[in-house]
Amino acid sequence: MSGGILYLKIKSDRAGAQLKELDARLADFVKSKPYTVSRYDDIQNLRHIIRIEIKVPEILGMLAGEFAYSLRSGLDQLAWQLALLHTKPKMPRTHTSFPILAKIPIRAIGHTDATRDIIRAAIPVIESLQPYNRETAFQSHPLWILNELCITDKHMIVPVNSATIRGELKGALVLGQRHFDNGFEMSVPLSDQFYVQLNPDPPEIVFGEPINIAGNRFEVRIADLRAIYNFVRDEVIPRFAGFFP
Fold first, then answer.
1. More confident residue, 186 or 224
2. pLDDT tens digit sequence for 154-168
3. Is the distance from CB of 160 to CB of 205 less than 8 angstroms?
4. Helices within the chain (DSSP H only)
5. Could you tell me the pLDDT band of residue 193, with boundaries at 50, 70 and 90?
6. What are the backbone dihedrals phi and psi of residue 149, each rounded to the nearest 5 degrees, phi first?
C-alpha cells in the first residue's frame, strides 16, 4: 500500500484502537453502577417522588470525537493523494477534500473545489459513497453520521445526548414522569411508597448533539460507531486501493 490508502489505513487502525478503548471505558462505566437514587414525599400532592440521576464521564465523548476525527481526516488525506495522481509535481488546491453530502449538489461533485483536482476515474467512486444516494434516509449513512460527529467535535467534546435508563418498577402505579439532562423523576401514590421496587437496567449511552439544541438532533450509539468503522475499512479502502501502485 502507498499514498492515500496507506494514510487512511493508518488512520483507520488508530480509530479501531480508539473504539476498543471506548468499549472498555463503557464497560467500566456500566460496572460502576453509576446511578444515584433519591426519594422524597410530596405531601401536598399525595405523591412519592423517585429521582434517578446518572453522571457520565466526559472521557466517553472525547474518545467518540477522536475516533470520528481519525476516520474523517483519513478520508481527506485520501482525497489529497487522489489529487496528487492528477496534479503532481504541482500541489493540489488547498480546498481538496473528501466530500460528504446529504443532498445532490447543484454542480457535479467532480467540478467542486473539493474534488476539482482529483483524478477523474475516482469521481464515480466518491459519488457512489455519498449519503444522498439513500435519499430521505441519508441520516442513516455511516459517512453522514461520521461527518456530523466531526462537526460537533470541532466545537465541543461530543456530548452524551442521553444515558437511556430502563428498568422494572413494581408495587405502584406511575402517576407522572419528568426527564432532565442527567436522569428523570417519577411519581407514585404516597400510600404506595413502601411497596415500590425499582430495578434499573444498565444504562445505554447515546452520543449526539447537546440535548438543549433546538431542531432535529442526531443520536449515535456505540453500534453506529462500529458500523462507521467497518464501512470505512471494508467498503471505502478496498474501492480506492486500485488507484495506487
1. 224
2. 878 787 766 656 656
3. yes
4. 3-31, 59-87, 123-128, 142-153, 222-231, 237-241
5. confident
6. -60, -40
The 10 Å Cβ neighbour count of residue 135 is 9
pLDDT, mean over the chain: 86
State how far the alpha carbon of 77 is from the alpha carbons of 6, 95, 157, 166, 241, in Å.
Answer: 10, 12, 23, 42, 14
DSSP state, residue 130: -
pTM of the prediction? 0.83
Closest by CA to 70, choosing from 225, 205, 222, 204, is 225
CA nearest neighbour of 110 among 133, 146, 86: 86
The residue length of the chain stands at 245
DSSP-derived letter for residue 232 is I
- Asked if pLDDT for residue 213 goes beyond 70, the answer is no
CB distance 75 to 98 below 8 Å: yes
Cα–Cα distance, 106 to 144 (Å, whole number): 19
Average pLDDT over residues 90-118: 91
C-alpha cell at 92: 493540489
Strands 197-200 and 167-170: antiparallel
DSSP assigned state of 91: P
Cα–Cα distances in angstroms (integers) from residue 49 to residues 166, 178, 186, 237, in the given order? 17, 10, 6, 53
Instruction: Look up residue 154 and give its DSSP letter.
Output: T
Other Cβ atoms closer than 10 A to 50: 20
Pair type for strands 35-42 and 197-200: unpaired
Backbone angles phi, psi at 114, to 5 degrees: -70, -35
H or E element: which one contains 52? Answer: strand 47-54
